[in-house]
Write a structure and sequence with these properties.
Blueprint: H1 11-16, E1 20-24, E2 27-32, H2 36-45, E3 48-51, E4 56-61, H3 65-72, E5 85-91, E6 97-107, E7 110-115, H4 120-131, E8 138-141, E9 146-152, H5 156-161, E10 174-179, E11 182-187, E12 196-202, H6 206-215, E13 219-220, H7 223-232, H8 266-275, E14 279-286, E15 303-309, E16 316-323, E17 332-337, E18 340-347
Parallel strand pairs: 3-13
Antiparallel strand pairs: 1-2, 3-9, 4-7, 4-8, 5-6, 6-7, 9-12, 10-11, 11-12, 14-16, 14-18, 15-16, 17-18
Length: about 350
């Protein structure tokens, strides 16, 4: 493994647990421990714990913090109450997606935005450049300050609650809680379709927190299971389903775009919404054997952006951009998988019901 790769505070725990480590966005991360399927099913049936410390954090504060974020983020940031969470996208002027983000309101003039690992430096530069127009807003890089663990699954909250001194925050909220005697941020969010929380703690506290969670029954899960879980519930992955080449309307994310706020790219997004997108991101199931992968062409137009074998459905599933006229649920499509045509059907999202 390249020595230049960054490592999270939990690297030694992953190695001790026998994880297969891979390069992910410049970080040496666990892709699996005992296998994607058992880790996936542990999250669906009980609880898994993920190291997501490679995600980035940007703090925005000051009397103009809201104005800056309203200009940058596609959603209506003014609607976030203190202790609330909100999903949005970051767009260029032409509507192309720079990243998709979660923003938490920590105080009246303090916000924390979580970025994708591969886009953190780009997002930070975008925030910093546009902050020059808002002298009352301060932008700080907090990626070195926090480790982030995601505990997901039907008993995930129960496992975290066992070490907490007060009730955990509700879904789509954030709050400080003492866990194992230390104060941490607990967020009612996740990326699996199951209930659970994401915990932000000081980096030096992460190994002991990990140990506590594993002792209580959270099963270590890697990036492989994280990908199959999110794909079953049709959550987007930047670099696959989202990119600079397409906008949020095509991606089915018009619900998190409030053009009247005047965010960067809002006019381009409004234009696509009004005329209708030429392409739409659909979910599909393969009819029979076979697994489609990113980049496989859809016969007659379009391409697969994500694909895998669903551990819950035991069929090939995925998402793809197709012409808008072929995006209706139930439409038959064909996918060229390495020269072999695989029949598939446009399916209702999510492919596996969300319980979170």
């Amino acid at each position: 493994m390249n020595a230049a790769l960054r490592r999270t505070a939990l690297f030694d725990r992953h190695v001790e647990a026998g994880a297969k480590m891979v390069d992910f966005a410049g970080w040496e991360m666990p892709v699996q421990y005992e296998g994607v399927r058992p880790e996936h099913m542990a999250v669906r049936e009980a609880a898994g714990v993920f190291d997501v410390s490679h995600m980035g954090e940007i703090e925005t504060s000051g009397p103009q913090a809201l104005e800056l974020l309203q200009r940058l983020l596609s959603n209506d940031v003014s609607a976030i109450s203190v202790g609330g969470a909100q999903y949005s996208v970051l767009c260029r002027e032409d509507g192309g997606i720079i990243d998709d983000l979660f923003t938490y309101r920590l105080g009246s003039e303090r916000y924390l935005t979580v970025t994708n690992a591969s886009n953190h430096e780009t997002d930070l530069a975008w925030f910093t450049t546009h902050a020059e127009e808002f002298p009352g807003a301060e932008v700080s890089d907090r990626i070195e300050d926090w480790a982030m663990l995601a505990v997901q699954g039907p008993i995930g909250r129960e496992i975290v609650q066992a070490g907490a001194e007060s009730p955990l925050p509700d879904r789509m909220t954030i709050g400080t809680r003492r866990i194992g005697g230390a104060e941490m941020f607990v967020c009612g969010t996740g990326y699996t379709g199951e209930d659970g929380v994401e915990i932000l703690c000081r980096t030096e506290l992460a190994p002991e927190l990990w140990d506590q969670l594993v002792r209580r029954g959270a099963r270590p899960a890697g990036l492989g299971a994280r990908d199959t879980l999110r794909l079953e519930v049709c959550f987007h992955l930047y670099g696959n389903d989202l990119s600079l080449e397409r906008g949020p309307i095509e991606a089915g994310l018009g619900w998190c775009c409030k053009e009247d706020t005047g965010f960067i790219g809002s006019e381009a997004v409004r234009a696509v919404r009004e005329r209708g997108p030429e392409e739409k991101l659909i979910a599909f199931k393969i009819d029979g054997p076979g697994i489609a992968r990113q980049g496989n062409p859809v016969v007659g137009g379009g391409e697969v952006t994500s694909g895998t074998l669903s551990p819950c459905l035991d069929v090939g599933i995925g998402m793809a951009y197709v012409p808008a006229g072929r995006a209706a649920v139930g439409t038959a499509i064909e996918i060229d998988v390495r020269g072999r045509t695989r029949p598939a059907t446009v399916a209702q999202k999510p492919l596996v019901p969300k319980r979170g």
